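User: Okay, second chain of the day. Same drill as before: sequence in, structure tokens out.
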Amino acid sequence: MKKLFKHHGGIICISTYIITWFLFGCIYCYIANVSYGQSFVFQEDILLKTKIIEFEKQLNIHINYDITKELFLNYNKKFVLMKLTKNDSPLITFNLTSSGIDPIGATWANYYISKWKSEGFNFCSAKILAKHQDVFGEAKYAKLKFSIYKIPEDTFPIISTKEVIYLPEVYELLIKKQIDFTVWINESEMDLLNDNWTFTGNNYKFAELDLGKYFISNSIVYLDTAIDIIYNYETQNLFTYPLIDFLYFSAVTITTLGYGDILPNSSLVRGLVMTETIIGAIILAISISFLYDRIKSKR
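Assistant: Same drill. Structure tokens below.
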């Protein structure tokens, strides 16, 4: 054993150091997920960045970081997620008041528009399906079909007003993809009671996608599973902490750097941190001693 260490001491020390770093990183990650992150204190920006990465991975999207960041920063943890069923249309909402349901707001509208743009959609339309509907509370709601489209812009001349893009009927054949959503809007929030009202969509009228922001912001319905993910992350503590963050924490612990962006928040983790620090210091001391002996023996 002594002979083995004499000839391969450097490799043994480096291997032990790496194994200790990796093992403790795995242990920290396991503890974080079992304790729902309560065993650590995270610098908010670091945790938020990690959550956004996992959020986009789950939805298989990649949009502007600041837009996604606003979804998390504006999330109110006092809200309770509700899934109401109205006829054939499930309503996913969580901002309930005594008078009705508050709209999802501009932050979510920006998110949806950005997401759809990243997927190649460029036009939208809406059509009223029903009026004066009871959903929740005293308010009356209009039920609409909101659609988004992929239409190649370079294949037709665009005749536009300040609000609406008019396309001749023949250009309906150019629609590459269409997705429809059932949306509910408080009738007092937008002027939907006029019989001649049209957002777009009637007689082959389409709006540029950006013009749907105000419309979507007044919706009481969330249009994808993003709200479920954020709700589970922020309220239900179902966020899975990635291993890489704790390998980083293990690295700054074993090297005694201690940046402070992740801190232990339990006696168990503090004990492990002390143990890893001591082991790291001992391995480092042995390595220096071995290196000194090698240099001395060559003289």
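Residues 74-234 form one domain.

User: Thanks, on to the next one.
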